[in-house]
Design a protein that fits this description.
mainly alpha; MetI-like fold; 11 helices
Length: about 290
């Protein structure tokens, strides 16, 4: 406990400015959602923006769509990234160097990843053009609506491409500490490859997998760049609705935009708490077994 306090004390010159800026931003967003610090007076009382928000059907539709995109992208990224990291780790040492190729998307900005997905998977993109030239489809209209089809596939695809290398990096660093002799022992006792992974290796990776899922889910839940290029108008991501309400609508809508940000922040806190409790409970039950 004392060592942890010493670490926090040493990091305080770096953490304190970020904490002040972050908490100030949240506080100002909450005040603006109540009608304060705005260029015009707001009618309807302190919580008028929240009442209007919770009575609007579009808010629940966009909230559900945002949860869907964030959950699917985080789940796919963690699943693919964990499997890929494990596969690279099982390779001979000489071949493990190919794992550096998985880090290429890490250096790309999210906006660049969105453009890559747009160029490849749009109805007039590279894949559609190739299929047309090969005679598989007769026109671009026959190409499935991966982007802007109302299902969020483009957003999910872009996030998975960007986030899988992040999971590979985290999981690989943990696998370096794993004792390979435990796998050999399980194989000697007749365990299959799937049994070895799920019963021997995966419990060791559970903490980093849970951490990765929380980080990726919350980032996808509140990100703006990829949904701005690949998102649909309705249903849309909440971050896009905040942008539209704050910058493209009447000044009277600014409290609603800030109210959405406050709701998203509170949901993130609740999600972290509930997910951490659930993960800890499952881990305790797994140890009993």
């Amino acid at each position: 406990m004392r060592d942890r306090a010493v670490v926090y004390l040493k990091l305080s010159p770096l953490l304190l400015p970020f904490a002040v800026i972050f908490s100030t931003g949240i506080f100002l967003a909450f005040l603006q959602s109540l009608g304060y610090f705005l260029p015009i007076p707001v009618q309807g009382g302190l919580f008028a923006a929240y009442r209007s928000l919770f009575r609007s059907l579009w808010f629940y539709q966009d909230f559900a769509f945002t949860l869907y995109c964030a959950f699917c992208s985080a789940l796919l990224s963690v699943s693919v990234g964990t499997a890929l990291a494990y596969g690279i780790w099982r390779l001979p040492i000489g071949l493990q160097k190919i794992g550096v190729l998985t880090k290429i998307p890490l250096i790309l900005p999210h906006i660049a990843v969105a453009f890559i997905v747009l160029m490849f998977f749009s109805k007039t993109g590279y894949i559609s053009s190739f299929l047309f030239q090969a005679g598989i489809i007769e026109s671009a209209e026959e190409f499935p609506p991966i982007l802007f089809g109302g299902r969020g596939w483009g957003i999910i695809l872009a996030y998975v491409y960007k986030e899988v290398p992040f999971v590979v990096l985290l999981v690989s660093s943990v696998l370096k500490k794993f004792e390979y002799a435990r796998i050999l022992t399980a194989q000697m006792l007749g365990a299959s490859r799937l049994t070895v992974f799920f019963r021997v290796v995966f419990p060791f990776l559970t903490p980093v997998v849970n951490t990765s899922f929380i980080i990726l889910f919350l980032y996808s839940f509140g990100a703006f760049d990829i949904p701005f290029l690949l998102g649909e108008s309705h249903p849309g991501m909440l971050s896009i609705q905040v942008y539209n309400l704050y910058f493209k609508r009447d000044l009277m809508n600014r409290p609603s935009a800030m109210a959405i940000l406050v709701v998203m922040f509170l949901f993130s806190l609740v999600f972290i708490y509930l997910y951490s409790r659930l993960a800890a409970r499952l881990e305790r039950e797994g140890r009993k077994l």
